[in-house]
What we know:
It is built from 6 helices and 11 strands. By secondary structure, the chain is of the alpha+beta class. Strands 1, 2, 4, 7, 9, 10 and 11 form a 7-stranded antiparallel beta sheet that branches. Strands 3-8-5-6 form a 4-stranded antiparallel beta sheet, with no helix packed on it. The longest helix has 17 residues, at 169-185.
Amino acid sequence: MISRSAAQAEQDAWRGLDPGWRQLYGDFEQLGLSVEWHGFRTERVLDWGRSFHPRSVEFCLNVDGRGAVGRDGRGVYEGGTCGYYSVADEPVTASRQARDQHEFVTIEFSQAHLQKQLADCAGELEPQVRDAVFPGKNRTIISRPRPMSGEQRNVVGALLQPPVPKAAQSLWYQSKALELIAHFMFEPKDSELFCM
């Protein structure tokens, strides 16, 4: 069950969009994790930033539609791209384009939740991610979206139709959230070079 204040903020952000927003799993305020599906078309530019939570890191798996996070054009989402943004205490500018069919999944983590999950491996995180999760100063960080991998596309499809019984879905969604952390947050290791 999502808590009332978080639920109201989400409902207000997506009001008037049919079907709009659907929470698949979690409760941002209680669990520090929320997995959400968004599917809508809008005739005017939508203020997407109103749905962002302070002191959070959010992943966006953008299947279709164009959106932007931040004023500098850094976080521009096209269909088939994914990325993340860390929201400090101040609101973040974000928009969804008019007349696009928007379909995307967001996985929203509180900083506190991620700090517990990643405390033992903080040194292996991408530097920008480390700054988002373990902030010395609370600041907004916006990644450049990149093409979704085949595995990430498969995760999106599975999130909409979990392949496990209802009693196991809580555990399954938690494992998928951890899988996405592993995809996004760690610094890629250089492969060893071999000489012939």
